[in-house]
Amino acid sequence: MEKFKQKIKKRLIFSGVYCAVILIMIFITVFGELNSLATSFALGFGVGIGAVVVIFMWKYLEALKSAERLKALYIEENDERQKHIDAKIGGVGINMSIMAIAIAMLISNYFDKTVFFTLLAVTLFIVAVKLVLKLYYNKKV
Amino acid sequence: MKSRIAELRKKRKISQEELAEAVGVTRQTITSIEVEKYTASLVLAYKIARYFDMTIEEIFDFSEVEEI
What we know:
The complex is a heterodimer.
Chain A: H1 2-31, H2 37-65, H3 67-78, H4 80-108, H5 113-140
Chain B: H1 5-12, H2 16-23, H3 27-34, H4 42-51, H5 56-59
Helix pairs in contact in B: 2-3
């Protein structure tokens, strides 16, 4: 459990660094008058993720306060059925995404060549990532 | 895979939550094993067997496992 405690502490540090970066970004955007659509969108996205990070930080801090909560968090994160579900989601989810993007790519071919080539690149990239991961895990496991 | 977990739990008056905590999984995992939706890993089967002071074969029914 000590190893897991250290892992949680590391996560807290990374989360804290992320929140500090977001605060600096807000400061630069507001006082540096960088209010373009792109910077506002990036900042909004960053703040959204930051809100989720803060919720997790609170969860980790609560877990570090008591051994019981820490064990519950450990079980929640290491439950084998949940890991099995996550693996299934990853595998099946990527396959479904490839199929959906490939269909969209074929349809877009009749309307817009730029969209077609973008979707083609995305499809090839996901397939390549899947193949690399397959080769990697075939060697590793 | 069929198992005797529910039967053993009831006999010893142990809740799913208690068993789950003892073997380091969530209550949902124990439920899924009991209703045969999920097959426990070898490590989990071992932990459950040890918890009940029995062997894996005494708890899990391997008769329906296909032989190649």
